Amino acid sequence: xxxxxxxxxxxxxxxxxxxxxxxxxxxxxxxxxxxxxxxxxxxxxxxxxxxxxxxxxxxxxxxxxxxxxxxxxxxxxxxxxxxxxxxxxxxxxxxxxxxxxxxxxxxxxxxxxxxxxxxxxxxxxxxxxxxxxxxxxxxxxxxxxxxxxxxxxxxxxxxxxxxxxxxxxxxxxxxxxxxxxxxxxxxxxxxxxxxxxxxxxxxxxxxxxxxxxxxxxxxxxxxxxxxxxxxxxxxxxxxxxxxxxxxxxxxxxxxxxxxxxxxxxxxxxxxxxxxxxxxxxxxxxxxxxxxxxxxxxxxxxxxxxxxxxxxxxxxxxxxxxxxxxxxxxxxxxxxxxxxxxxxxxxxxxxxxxxxxxxxxxxxxxxxxxxxxxxxxxxxxxxxxxxxxxxxxxxxxxxxxxxxxxxxxxxxxxxxxxxxxxxxxxxxxxxxxxxxxxxxxxxxxxxxxxxxxxxxxxxxxxxxxxxxxxxxxxxxxxxxxxxxxxxxxxxxxxxxxxxxxxxxxxxxxxxxxxxxxxxxxxxxxx
Length: 525
Hints:
This protein has 525 residues and is mainly α. It has helices at residues 3-9, 15-36, 42-49, 53-81, 83-102, 107-124, 126-135, 138-170, 178-181, 183-197, 212-235, 239-264, 279-295, 298-309, 314-320, 322-342, 345-367, 375-401, 409-437, 447-457, 462-502.
């Protein structure tokens, strides 16, 4: 194609284009904010709905798993009916699911609403990259994707602080509902604006349909593995938990053989087996899973410890995340420039800093008495981990995609996105089991502690004795949750160390011009 022809057919960037782009960014910000904003609300949800430990894990893991599983089929459907309509349907469903989550009066309803919310979030995420490609010519596309990448890091990093502010403003009892209700006005505005502003591309371009059997097999396998990881500790690891994990592994094997058969028949499998002919890609996919298992579990542990264990408010819990958020934003702003200069070394530095930061947080929890901990002790380690995370998250997908042939880049990117969300779900499930599994059966004073309190304060009256006993309960809560959080952060640190080791399977540098296509994750049959 000549340059004259190219310029003639390239879309013009107008004010309307940027307004449409703003709608896409608003939708992405809503979906990604909800991946972290809920962390600071977990203790208040626990109190308000009398939720058990498994429910808290499901609220996070269910969202992440459903989100990840929806990514690839949503791209395929968008190819057939138009990405604009997939975006609108997904965003509308996400908004309605947010309403359902906010009005939930029992834990089962809340879990279902969160799963549906994650499902629709995963549906409207893939059309964004396809629509950016449609709306912007190559020269302007880089700027659009830079803003897109920055919004991902910014929304994810600020989730805990926004959640803490909302709960502090509206009260601890039912303030958690506001983290879901806040999506409603923005969702309605975004759906209407998307209908009016987004371009309607020609539908029906995809030559193959969605691999429904593959989708069902993969979903069944992951659910079969995830359910016992979340419920097993609370239920005492009965026989069904081991059978379920074994069944999930069998389903994964069946899924692999099914995908091979789909590929042999000349159709488009959900996860193209040819990708895994590249050992470096396989290692990169495991890296994506392990890193996100470490990354998304950090503030799950800290939020529960900070509020339930130490009695701080949701806002105070959200403030703990500020050093990580600032570090992440600064790291992300420099990551692409450093990646061009240093190549894979930027990922090595990023994962090393995350591992060192998490080890630092673990040391603070290990060495200090829980009651003596403040934000200041965690500031340095979390800032280091946040900066490392910012360096890693922005360029890591490009390095993983660079391990496969250029023609396979779109399919590879879709698989990576799914594995990142699956990693988030598995990380929360494992960390939740470690954290809650290490708690004592009761935080009530022992007989000796009660007797000592009565002896020391009996002369001052029953009120003084009750106050002394409450201080003992508070101490036991701090020590118990401090111990659980220490173990949980140790596991997160181990995940980060493993991720550091896996970085070395990736290529040292990306060939100039090798980029993830703008329609990444949307294979074309």
